[in-house]
Amino acid sequence: MKQIDEHDRTIIETLRKDGRISYRNLASIVGISNVAVRDRVSKLVKKGYIKGFFALADSRMIGKEVSAIFEVEANTNEFSEVVEKISAFEEVTKVYEKVGSPTIFIHASFSNIDEMQNFAESIYKMKGVIKVASSMIYKRHKFDPSLDI
After folding, report:
1. Ordered DSSP codes for the chain
2. pLDDT tens for each residue of 83-92
3. CA-based radius of gyration for the chain
4. pTM of this prediction exceeds 0.85
5. Distance linking the first and last C-alpha atoms of the chain
């Protein structure tokens, strides 16, 4: 992958902090013209450095009061199918695979505890699932959605 220059890095960092900044203000920060900024942003998107722009909703304000982390162990032979099924749930916001073991880490948001319990039961019943552990999130101390990790 081609290395990006300092202008591109400044563009990305600025957009991570404020994805709604105008090209004019962004050009002022970067020190290049509006047209050059617009072209660079387009190229960064096209090449995949910038994955997209979105509105970050407050989960509690839209009725998602319960947030939880699930750790799911699955049979190696059915691992991909389990990941695919879990990823299809609307409540699921993130799915990660652990290196070295057939373990899946899931973050999901729910309207209430009953919804969370129903989700957990659905996971337990999936073919290929060996073990499920869950933890309700009490408080978030840091959150940076601007990096796709």
Report:
1. -PPP-HHHHHHHHHHHH-TT--HHHHHHHHTS-HHHHHHHHHHHHHTTSS--------TTTTT--EEEEEEEEE-GGGHHHHHHHHHT-TTEEEEEE-TTSSEEEEEEEESSHHHHHHHHHHHHHSTTEEEEEEEE----S---TTS--
2. 999 999 999 9
3. 20
4. no
5. 17
Question: What pairs with residue 132 in β-bridges?
Answer: 72
**Structure confidence at residue 149 (pLDDT):** 63
- Catalogue all structural domains in the chain, each as residue range(s) with its CATH number: 6-46 (1.10.10.10), 66-136 (3.30.70.920)
Best CA proximity match to 2, nearest among 51, 39, 50, 49: 49
- C-beta separation of 44 from 8 below 8 A: yes
CA–CA dist 84, 87 (Å, integer): 5
For a pLDDT cut of 90, what percent of the chain falls above it? Answer: 78
The predicted pLDDT at position 2 comes to 66
**pLDDT mean over 28-55:** 94
Q: Helices 23-30 and 6-17, interaxial angle, to 10°? A: 130
- pLDDT mean across residues, the chain: 92
